[in-house]
Design a protein that fits this description.
The protein has 179 residues and is an all-alpha fold. The longest helix has 33 residues. The chain starts with a helix and ends in a 12-residue tail after the last helix.
């Protein structure tokens, strides 16, 4: 399976597994999704070095998913859930940036445009989520903004999964065959 197909499948699982009060099943789905994303991007590191930080962020997402186990204290689960939402958007921005670089080298204007939009949208959402999350202790009413930004982030992650799937079989999105 092409690396971007693996990563796209991982993104689908991440979107399905990000539940604030999910049980072991949701945590497992989320962690497996992040592992697939990291694995797919790891295979693309020789093609585009920008996948290195993206993969590191995906591995952090897997670790955060495992910290959301149901037997953890409520406050820890809340903080880790917020961190998980931030990691979704951070990985979206980093992954889209890496895909953008690959697509530009490969001459794909369509994928370049989609990846550029997703990168900037992800960075914008990251700023909104971070600002609202940091202000939550002082303005609890901002919780709605965090939730709304997270929902937009998950929608963008789904879009990103589709862009990766569309790009998976392109020659510029595959590691060179080793002989």
């Amino acid at each position: 399976m092409p690396p971007l197909s693996v990563a796209a499948l991982g993104w689908v699982l991440v979107v399905l597994g990000v539940e604030p009060n999910g049980g072991g099943w949701d945590v497992g789905v989320d962690a497996a999704g992040w592992a697939l994303v990291a694995g797919g991007w790891h295979r693309l590191e020789p093609v585009e070095p920008a996948y290195v930080p993206a993969r590191a962020a995906a591995l952090a997402g897997a670790a955060a998913a495992l910290l959301r186990l149901p037997d953890a204290p409520e406050q820890l689960r809340t903080v880790v859930y917020l961190a998980s939402l931030l990691l979704v958007v951070l990985c979206l921005a980093l992954g889209a940036s890496a895909l953008l670089a690959s697509a530009r080298c490969g001459g794909s204007a369509l994928v370049s445009g989609q990846a550029s939009f997703l990168r900037w949208a992800g960075l914008g959402l990251l700023v909104v989520e971070c600002g609202a999350a940091l202000a939550l202790p002082f303005a609890p009413s901002l919780a709605g903004l965090v939730v709304s930004a997270a929902q937009v982030g998950l929608a963008l992650a789904t879009w990103f999964a589709l862009v990766q799937l569309f790009s998976a079989r392109r020659t510029w999105a595959k590691p060179a065959a080793t002989g």
